[in-house]
Amino acid sequence: MVLFSAQFGFPFLASTIKRRFRELGYEMKSEPFWSLFNISNFWNEARETNRTYKDAKISQLLYVRTGWWVLVAICFIGLAV
């Protein structure tokens, strides 16, 4: 249940990433709101753009999202076994 509710934090995480890119002078094309459903290109655009900018704060935020998915996979495997 906690993992499910934590997913609703994705738009806030995405908004922080978009705000940081704006500070760096890049305007993202994708909207953070749609990051909740993981059907947008937001996360791909953020990852690809950060390869250019190499911003430590954005990298950290992207790792948080990746860590969340790893935790979900571990919990799913734990429940399945």
What does this structure look like?
There is one protein chain. The chain has about 80 residues and is mostly helical. About 70% of the residues lie in helices and about 0% in strands. The chain is elongated and about 45 Å long.
Question: Top keywords for this entry?
Answer:
elongated; mainly alpha; 0% strand; 81 residues; single chain; 4 helices
Fold topology:
Layout: H1 2-6, H2 10-23, H3 42-53, H4 56-80
Largest sheet features: none
- Give Rg in angstroms: 14 Å
The average pLDDT value, as a whole number, equals 86
- Secondary-structure class: mainly alpha
N→C terminal distance: 18 Å
Q: Given the C-alpha coordinates, what overall shape results? A: elongated
Helix content: 55-70%
- Residue windows where pLDDT falls under 50 for at least 5 positions: none
Work out the number of β strands: 0
Q: Please tally the helical runs, counting DSSP H or I stretches of 4 or more residues.
A: 4
Give the SSE order as H and E letters.
Answer: HHHH
Strand content: under 5%
The gist of it:
With 81 residues, the chain is an all-alpha fold. The protein has helices at residues 2-6, 10-23, 42-53, 56-80.
